[in-house]
Amino acid sequence: MRYAVALIALWAMTSAAAHAQEARVSLQTPHYSFDRQTLLRGAKEFVDRCQTCHTLKYLRYSRVGEDLGLKESQVKKMLMVPANAEYHGAMLNTMPAKDAARWFGVSPPDLTLVARYRGTDWLYTYLKSFYRDPSRPSGWNNRVFPHVAMPDVLAMAGGQRDKEGKLVKAGSLSPKQYDRLVSDLTAWLQYTSDPSKVQRMALGPWVIAFLLVLSVLAYLLKKDYWRAVH
Amino acid sequence: MKGLTDWINDRLPFRELAREHLTEYFAPKNFNIWYVFGSLALLVLVIQIVSGYFLLIHYQPNEDAAFDSIQTIMFDVKWGWVLRYTHTTGASMFFIVVYLHMFRGLMYGSYKKPRELLWIIGFIIYLTLMAEAYLGYVLPFGNMSFWGGKVITSIIEAVPFVGDWLVTLARGGFGIGTATLNRFMGMHVILVPLLLIALVAVHILALHKVGSNNPDGIEIKEHKGSDGKPLDGIPFHPYYTVKDIFGTCVFLTVFCAIMLYAPTVHGLFIELANYTPANPLNTPPDITPAWYLSPFYAMLRSIPNKIGGIAALGLAWILPFFLPWLDRNPVKSVRYRPVYRIMLVILALSLLVLGWIGMQPATPAMLLPGRIFLALYFLFFFALPVVSRLEPTKEVPQRVNMS
Description:
By secondary structure, chain A is mostly helical. Chain A has helices at about 1-20, 35-50, 60-70, 70-80, 95-105, 115-120, 120-125, 155-160, 175-195, 195-225, and strands at about 55-60, 90, 130, 140, 160, 165-170. Chain B has a two-stranded antiparallel ribbon with strand order 1-2. Chain B is built from 15 helices and two strands. Classes of the chains: A mainly alpha, B mainly alpha.
């Protein structure tokens, strides 16, 4: 165990250095509709698969409940997995940051804003770009983010690939199901990076329609006044 | 009611003011769409002050808390996203309307006698606005804020002898941190806005002294009726207030569409690299300023020598002040100056291309196009004294065209 921890620490240190020299890989665009169903699926997957290590420190459970139309009891049952989670508190992880830093060398980054910072195309492609690499301590590497400390946590679902992208071990999901999983996660992180999008989209048509009507009225008023000039 | 307004007017001349600046301020009746952007710039100024005030309530000018306080506004403050997106959209829209307003002035010769001072005050407003925008850009303390803050303040180092001392003074220390944020916030929130408001007031006063120009570039005061009012003039109120209300509605529709559907405009209005906190150990691969400063950043970079770049930038900002005297042609409007029209197109094009170059990674391949379009920018000003004397002009009408 101790040996493994030391190895992970060493690997994380080198990965931090490699961080700077990320490969420029052409990115793929995920296809999903940014709606309640997609976000609910993405939220659930995130809580189950990502939140052990990663935090969403700016986002509160209560906000998610409001935006996705969930009752407090539903949020508690569906999303509040960490034992110490509070309804009005942020979506924090279960792994203490101190331990994480010791185990990985770098603590897994907060993901609230990652979709804004990296872009959804990057996120989607990154999650699908892991491959088996025996030279890495974790046994994993990534084409978009070479020498990344993170292993492919979705491999159980999506299967394992080699460097050429060939499937070496099938996962529990079909390629189509797996693609939807990654797309849902991407959509969810797009939501967390800017939850206002839910409100903006709901408000948008009303605001624009109001202003258009106002513009028409203002135009008619102007025309009426200007009859004297023409 | 009449008694009360009389009582007030005996002590405060609001009726005279309204008469002088609205109901009996005569504006040419042939204003086209280009004349809406002055009012819109004033509108955006008000939008920025109001949204900025509410943002200030929640903002923390501290290197450890600034970035998080912006996220608090976005995630926790009720309607906080409206405040922030209004302010970020407003910043870019400010420059869009100001650029269009300035281009209008160039097209119709609004910088020429007797409006030289009006143009100069306007250009000072523009430079002040750039300073205001830059200061505000640093405040969220994302990684681009940090590096932008560092790179731009380092320009001051070029000042001979006292450069290092001045940089330390501007930053409030040797690095960019809490002291910098405090200084920048003070300037962004108090000093520069007060200056802007004062300058805008002077700009309007100067305008109302000389009167508005128009698309034909002829003076309406030269043709007055028997009542002493310009024949081609109409009172600003109600004619242009009602027209500007229409313009305002259309503008707000565009404004809200951006704010609601694409507030970052693919990283143009809000840079995506600024969504990660300031990190002195992590330099972004490409440090580029916001789009509205991009042409000048391209000028700075097109000369890979610090002093040379700054000299080019300085010249680019000084030359417009002399425009009223560089242009020797008495004909004002581009409608009657075909050669000037071509020069204006080249000027606009060179600024657009420089803006694009400024947003690209700094590669040697960009050096030559950067220099070519910088030269074209300068050429506009240096060729103008000669061209304006020799160019053929069309016959200018006596009275304005309503088209």
